[in-house]
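Recall that a protein's primary structure is simply its ordered list of amino acids. Everything else, from secondary elements to tertiary packing, is in principle encoded there. The following example makes that idea concrete.
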Amino acid sequence: MIVKYDKEVDVLSLIFNDNQVVESDEDKPGLILDFDDTGTVVSIEILDASKKMKNPTQVEYQAA
């Protein structure tokens, strides 16, 4: 998984694989799910990320 934050447009992206995106759905305002041709989630984008989280440039990873 790749986590990217674009400060210029204030978007946090969680990229799960490199499949081609064929459909996007704004499930909730500011939350975009990108899907490949089989319906698998390719990525999640959070718009206005700095307004929705404490620090979008900081990532903490926890294994359960």
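The first helix runs from residue 49 to 52. The chain has one domain: 2-52.
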